[in-house]
Amino acid sequence: MRFCILLVYGLFFFFPTLIFCANTHTTTPGEDQKLFVTAVIRDAFTLCVPFSTPVATASLWAIPHHRGFTALFQAPQTFFLTKRTKTLTMRRPLFTTIITLFLLQLLGCSIGCLALSPTAHHCMYDEIMKKASLPKPTMVQELPRKGRGTWQTYTASTEEDDAGVWAPIRIMVSEKDLNDPSKYCTNIGENRPTFLGFDKECQLHDILTSRARAELLQNVIPAAIKLHSDRLSVRQNSSPLIVPRSIKESHCKHFTVPEEHYTTGVKDADAVIYVAAGTHFPFAVSCLAAEKDVRPTVGAMSFSISGLHHSWFAVRVIAHELAHVLGFNYEQMRAQNMLSSVSISSFQQKKGIVTSVLTKQKAVEHYNCESLEGMPMRDEQGDNLRMHSHWDQRYAKDDLMSTMVTSGAGFYTAVTMAAFADMGFFKVNFSMAEKMNWGKGVGCSFVNQKQCTPDDYKNYPEMFCHRNTSDTRRYCTSDRVQLGICSSFSDDQCLFIQPLGFGSCRDTSSILHGSRIGTSSWCLDGESLKVNEEVLETEPQVISVGGVCVEVFCGRKEVSVRYLGDDDWHECPEGGKISPANTSVDFAEGYIKCPRYEEVCTITPSGRSGLPFQKNGPIHDDSSNRK
């Protein structure tokens, strides 16, 4: 990171030289210089990016700071291919050209370090919670009910009515801090709270407009809550949920809690979340310490307004953070005796695994490995003595509870639902489990390997890739929402297609060869696929691509697509392929490979689940099997 910072400073120091070179290379001022600068910057970036891993540490909060860099790439790939080519003449000697190219390479590498996918969220729950000192919940022991096991459930502050019934969880959102202009940004330059204990100056991307607020409260948050309420049921309280005043000893003290929540309580709620729009990255926190057999009921969350540019992605990010508050976190799993640890290297490096009955069963089914010990949790490089609150990215990259929610993925899988069921406070509706192709049926050889190796791409080509610096093509990410390059997530040697900041199939500012961009677009793989790129010459330039974005329509178990240059819909059955060159002049040759139905139809463009709700689906209560 320090190297990246030095490169950025170098960029801004030498940027006037770049502009000077642009002036001396063109005879027409204004737009021509912009075309020159943006075009060669993009080429320099292309040269540099295979040697870096820019997206691995991306977080949603960082996006707006570098939006300008992304905008730089909205230009033709090289200035020789623009419609203004005839006005460009070379006038500088070789020495100046060499210096310019050096600076461009420096610039490209700098941007390579900063190029962040506009749809990548690195969860900060563990980083924040490890610094927190949480109060214990006020526990009220339930009276044993007829037919129940020997374990007992506790609730924070209120006792569940003995006549209470299992029903979808009711999550109440308190929006006091979204109604108080002193708590969110209205103008650039204001100081507003981060809700982490300090203030920060407002930037343009921090401003909470009335439209953004409405989008958040009317669409995004309700959709995220529905992802949980469609899948998780609790024994509902007939009494109001009383919030303990002791939460003032936690991070939640930075959020506004109405006085009546401490006294008369919150009616018709099984959990309450205090929400805000701070001037920092998005995060969620638990307000009370994890206790055995105590269902978490109080949490807080601050949103990043910039993330609302992609509401379909924001829904999954918020659902991810809500899951932590509802109990999907290391401390709660440890309290419920769901965890074990195993050695994963000769250096006694440890990895936490969830070994509770149902989670292990669903993991065995997904990976097709009977000897699987449990579902692996993330292990942190350099922090191996502390377990973490996410599934290991190698095993569950596209799961809702993976370390990084990327692109539009975040599948609410049966494995994640099983973890909730194993806690004992939830019944889960497995008919609403979303299928994840990552790791599906890979077998015990993958599971027992425990760590990535350079040859993974040979054995698991649908998951991993081989870094080839001579291959400049962009390929589809595993969740099929973006195009990207082969890169590693960290220092773990796991190489897979990482999304790039200008590669989204749904961002209209993206410029992708042969792609049809739109809110319902997905990325499909190409087979010997080549596209025609319009240039000034009489014959178009033919460019080889690894994948393209197409619009997708999901029928009843059928997928139809339409691609660039053709407005007709074409049926695209699983395992089949389409020859777009037959109907579109934008394609030269090759095929678009048809996807699996669940890959592009499980999550809707709005971020909601594409599965039809089944109220009476298979419900599982694991209270009798808990350790």
UniProtKB/TrEMBL annotation:
Its EC number(s): 3.4.24.-
InterPro entries: Peptidase_M8
Residue numbers annotated as active site: 321
GO BP, sorted A to Z: cell adhesion; proteolysis
Cofactor field: Zn(2+)
Subcellular location: Membrane
Signal peptide: 1-21
One cellular component term from this protein's GO annotations in UniProt: cytoplasm
Reaction it catalyzes: Preference for hydrophobic residues at P1 and P1' and basic residues at P2' and P3'. A model nonapeptide is cleaved at -Ala-Tyr-|-Leu-Lys-Lys-
Family membership: Belongs to the peptidase M8 family.
Protein name: Leishmanolysin-like peptidase
Native species: Trypanosoma cruzi
